[in-house]
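Deliverable D4.2, example record:
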Amino acid sequence: MDALELLAHDHRMVEQLFRDYDAAASDRQRRGVVELLVRELSRHAALEEMLLYPLARKVLPDGEREIDEHLSEHMGVKRTLVELDGLGEGDRRADDLVAGLRRELTEHFQEEEVVLMPLLREAVSPEDLDELGELIGRAKRTAPTRPHPHAPDQPPALTLAAPVAAAYDRLRDRMQRRPTT
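Output generated by the structure prediction step:
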């Protein structure tokens, strides 16, 4: 898949997670879906910020303004993800936060897929989009899995901060999976 197809596929996966949340039969299942949402959206945002958005800034005529808007939307999503990540199983605030997140992301995904991605498809060669897709696929394995709203969201600072955040996130993920005694 090229980069744009890969990122649109991520959007479909997140939409499915929202449906899974709605269909969950217990607080434990809903919490599991929330943890997946936090992980997948954090990874997706980091990859867009590290790899796609710098390219868009460079190749699109109004790239600076366009990407600044997307980064602003990412910040709102990250704040919601931090709140969701901090909730315990059965916390009723999760329903409202997930509903708000769904509304934000529906609009954000629409903007990316209807405006940003077609502009990039016109401005970037298919070969370069394929290469970027491969890079995104490899980077997905090591991208941060938690939201970091106070971390830089643009290179070069993002490029330096992301690996440290990702290593911390993976340690935290492992610690959360260990059974408590």
